[in-house]
What we know:
By secondary structure, the protein is α+β, with helices and mostly antiparallel strands. 30% of the residues lie in helices and 17% in strands. It has a single domain, classed as NADH Oxidase (3-Layer(aba) Sandwich), CATH 3.40.109. The longest helix has 18 residues.
Amino acid sequence: MIELLRKRRSIRKFQDKSIQKDTIEILKEAVLRAPTSRNIMPWEFIFITDKDKLKKLSEAKQHGSAFVAGAPLAVVVCADTTKSDVWVEDCSIASIMLQMTGLELGLGSCWSQIRNRKHSESESAESYIQNLLGIPEHFAVECIVALGYPDEEKEPVLYSDLPVKKIHTEKF
C-alpha cells in the first residue's frame, strides 16, 4: 500500500482509451467494500461512461471539473442523508478506495469536489448533477471521481517534501 501512496497523484489528462468491463467491475467491488460508520452504507455510486454525460458532468461547477470530459469513466459519489450523519466521511472513504484501486489497476484519477460548490450564480453544482442524473433530493452529491489511463506523468512527491511538521507525538 505504501508504494501506491507514494506514486498517487491527481491525473487530469487521460488517454482516449476505454476501461475494460472487468476492470470497472473491480472498481465497483472496491467501493462496495468501503467501510462505513455503523455499517449503514448511506452511499450510492453512479458509474458513467457515456461521452455526452461525461461532457455535461465536466460543466458541473464553475472551475475544477473540466477534466471529467476527457475521462473514459466518472463515478458520481452520493449518499442518502437521511440514513447517516457521517455520510460525508463515508463517501470520502469510498472515493479514496476507488482511486487507490484504480491506481493499482493502472488507472489515473482525480476527485472533483461537488458538495458546497457552485454550478452558476443561481444553481449549486449538486443541484445541477441531481437534475442531470435524476438523483433524489434527499441524496447529497459529495464528488465526481474521474478515472482513465493516464496521458500525463507526474513524479511522486519526495519524502523530503512531505510536511512532516504536521505530525505530532503525544501532544500538539
